[in-house]
Design goal:
Length: about 50
């Protein structure tokens, strides 16, 4: 009966979830790498 409306609603909810997840991951990806990790990477490169 209202299957089309339910399907559109479900698609809309899934789209919102996808957009929110992308925002969260983009924020994490754009964060600065802590100095401790950079120092560790430098030490590892020196060992090579």
């Amino acid at each position: 009966m209202n299957t089309r409306r339910d399907d559109r609603r479900k698609v809309g909810i899934e789209k919102q979830i996808d957009e929110n997840l992308k925002r969260v991951y983009e924020q994490d990806a754009n964060q600065k790498i802590p100095d401790k990790f950079l120092e560790l990477l430098d030490k590892l490169r020196e060992q090579e």
